[in-house]
């Protein structure tokens, strides 16, 4: 879609508000949610066979368990197909991608704690599956450290245009400082390059919760940051598929002292769609809802409610040229189909 035409469509959306097929209140949204399964932090990918695979964290008998759940009908019904990792530390933040070879990789945080619940080691771990998510094996540990004050969080995997594998994640440098890190693999996740910082360098800010999508020959990254106070959503962009980054700019700041956090992004039919969680419609610091924006850096629609109050940790993927699947924790993992007009 031409940029000029997209700007016109965004202008229309900003003046018309939510589209007719997008629920505008909590009760209507509740009726439209599909159950993925128990747990939190759902992230999805379209497999080569057309099915959708979601990975999410569940909690069983004191253990954190990352499971794989599959849909054969575009997110209407779901069934668990595999278990990726299980442990009594802090195992969470899964992200899944299928490689051109058909191998499926899941990245997640894999942290150890002592008997008092204090962190002793931080890791980003990669596991792989060769049977569409049914069985999984350990593959690699792209990063780890034993500094209890500098955590590693929220990995994101994507296949670059040159078929290399890009891993992004958040690294704490101090309580008030967190940067966004990139590593690259040229052997399907077995070994990894040295790190590169794509946002947060030279700033005492907590950049985190990265999401990525291509747009207009660029790669757009979204993230949360407290650069100017309460958490807000910003972006940076790469003109060369992730090799260099710049043009840091604001996407969304919540009302007053409320927060906008945990963004994700997808390209749907040439439009960028961003989800995030915010407490701006409720009590400050209270439960969040999930909202959605449509547009591109510098021009975004009004926000649209897609996850009712008490929703958080949303993921998003495009279903086709006009529809996206939004997934979030709402008393368990739920999915909602939204149409982008």
TrEMBL record:
SUPFAM superfamilies named among the record's database cross-references: Sialidases (SSF50939)
Gene3D superfamilies reported for this sequence: 2.120.10.10
UniProt feature, compositional bias: Basic residues: 1-10
Region Disordered, residue ranges: 1-26
InterPro entries on file: Sialidase_sf (IPR036278)
Protein name: Glycoside hydrolase family 93 protein
């Amino acid at each position: 879609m031409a940029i000029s035409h997209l700007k016109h469509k965004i202008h229309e959306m900003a003046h018309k508000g939510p589209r007719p097929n997008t629920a505008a209140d909590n009760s209507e949204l509740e009726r439209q949610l599909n159950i993925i399964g128990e747990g939190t932090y759902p992230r999805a990918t379209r497999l080569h066979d057309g099915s959708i695979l979601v990975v999410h964290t569940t909690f069983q008998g004191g253990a954190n368990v990352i499971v794989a759940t599959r849909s054969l009908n575009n997110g209407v019904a779901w069934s668990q197909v595999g278990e990726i990792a299980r442990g009594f530390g802090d195992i969470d933040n899964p992200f899944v991608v299928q490689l051109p070879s058909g191998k499926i990789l899941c990245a997640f945080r894999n942290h150890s704690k002592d008997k008092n619940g204090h962190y002793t080691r931080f890791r980003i771990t990669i596991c792989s599956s060769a049977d569409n998510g049914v069985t999984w094996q350990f593959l690699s540990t792209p990063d780890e450290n034993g500094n209890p004050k500098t955590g590693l969080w929220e990995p994101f995997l994507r296949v670059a245009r040159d078929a290399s594998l890009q891993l992004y994640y958040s690294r704490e440098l101090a309580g008030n400082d967190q940067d966004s890190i990139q590593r690259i693999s040229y052997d399907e996740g077995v070994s990894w390059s040295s790190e590169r910082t794509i946002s947060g360098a030279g700033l005492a800010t907590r950049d985190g919760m990265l999401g990525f999508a291509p747009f207009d020959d660029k790669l757009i990254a979204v993230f949360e940051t407290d650069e100017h106070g309460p958490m807000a959503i910003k972006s940076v962009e790469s003109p060369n598929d992730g090799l260099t980054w710049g043009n840091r700019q604001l996407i969304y700041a919540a009302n007053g002292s409320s927060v906008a956090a945990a963004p994700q992004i997808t390209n749907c039919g040439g439009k960028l769609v961003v989800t995030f969680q915010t407490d701006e419609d409720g009590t400050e610091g209270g439960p969040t809802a999930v909202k959605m924006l449509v547009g591109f850096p510098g021009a975004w629609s009004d926000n649209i409610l897609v996850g009712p109050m008490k929703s958080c940790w949303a993921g998003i993927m495009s279903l086709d040229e006009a529809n996206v699947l939004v997934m979030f924790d709402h008393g368990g993992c739920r999915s909602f189909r939204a149409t982008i007009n």
